[in-house]
Amino acid sequence: MMKNIKDSYQHSYGLCLRLALVGVLIGLIVGAVDTIFGRVLLLIGDVRSAHLPYLLPFLALAGLVIVALYQRFGKDTQKGMGLIFEVAHGESEVIPLRLIPLVVISTWLTHLFGGSAGREGVAVQLGATISHRFRHCLSFPNSSQVLLVTGMAAGFAGLFQTPLAGLFFALEIVTLGQLNLYALLPSLFAVYTASSFSHFLGLEKFSHVLPLTQTITVEVFLKCLLLGLLFGLTGNAFVSLQSFFKKQAIDYLKNPYWRIALIGGVLSLALFFAHFGRYAGLGTNLIEASFSTHQVYSYDFLMKLLFTTLTLAVGFQGGEVTPLFAIGASLGVILAPVFGLPIELVAAAGYISVFASATNTLLAPILIGGEVFGFQNLPFFAITVIISYMLNRRQSIYGLQKAVAVDAE
């Protein structure tokens, strides 16, 4: 296997050029698709906020439509990110093109009617499905895996417009503890193309460059360690609760229609009475509040965690990453005064560190910190992320990640 990987990135100059061109082409297509998906999703969020009392009561009905769509047309696409990982590991061979309309429509429905979910997982699936179509165009060792990782990177970068983070997210997400460097060249071209093209097409990017640079003293270093521990535990809790809710829901409500209808009804009521939909949707309202003078409650992070894990566990569609950002940022706002550190700095550290723990990624969250909040505080971000990452090496929102076996002898 290692020989094949080595061979796969020691290419001739001609093949390197073809890989770069394919990366650009994938980036253009994925960037355009990400833009359509992302802009419609933002519009849906505005519509939901303006008409919440009329939409939230129909969350259960939207869930029934989602289940019906997947039961009728889904087949293997019901696995979602699981199917992407199976193809990446060579356990499955095909990602059906129908995954794109199914996951996009289902995610739009989830958000329109108030479900608490994200978008990144959808973007990564879109990118992987699109790049998978190019697998017959190139022939060399691991060509299918190279293209798959390239598409995943483009999907992440096109949606969040964080090209370096998107690059390393895709390189490190498939196999824990290993960078899939065989896809480095096309992924590099794909992420910058997708990010630039989605920006050109008008997709909004969240960025908040911090107006300060934190010096790392011994005291600050120790505070970073404790913050990383708390953020890591929060990421662990997200993964554990999502797995627990999913197992319990399947055990007690085996019929997927009854499952999503009953729990969807409970969710709609709970979301309505919990600050009138404050925890519906992506969680960008909590992120914006964390980096402004708006109110952040001490329980915001916990409520968002509970609503998101339950929404996704019962069959609604969407990603986890933006809610993880919201959970971490709102927790950081509460912890900052306790540790005597700037609120925005700790909120930014929480934003990336909870994500690191829940996804088992290291380099991507550190780079998100730099690309979103400015690289001047990279040492602070790196310390909290490393601790959060080291705290969780087995659990992940992506259950089919594979770990590299390390011989300790």
Automatic annotation (TrEMBL):
Q: Name one GO molecular function term.
A: chloride transmembrane transporter activity
User: What superkingdom does the record give?
Assistant: Bacteria
Q: How does it sit in the membrane?
A: Multi-pass membrane protein
Please verify whether the record's keywords include Flavoprotein: no
Q: Which GO terms describe its cellular component?
A: membrane
Instruction: State a single Pfam family of this protein.
Output: Voltage_CLC
* Spans through the membrane: 12-32, 52-70, 146-169, 181-203, 224-245, 257-276, 297-316, 374-392
Location in the cell reads: Membrane
- InterPro entries this protein is in? Cl-channel_core, ClC, ClC-type_chloride_channel
Q: What keywords tag this UniProt record?
A: Membrane, Transmembrane, Transmembrane helix
May I ask which residue range the UniProt record assigns to the signal sequence? none
Protein name as it appears in the record: Voltage-gated chloride channel protein
Question: What is the species listed in this Swiss-Prot or TrEMBL entry?
Answer: Streptococcus cuniculi
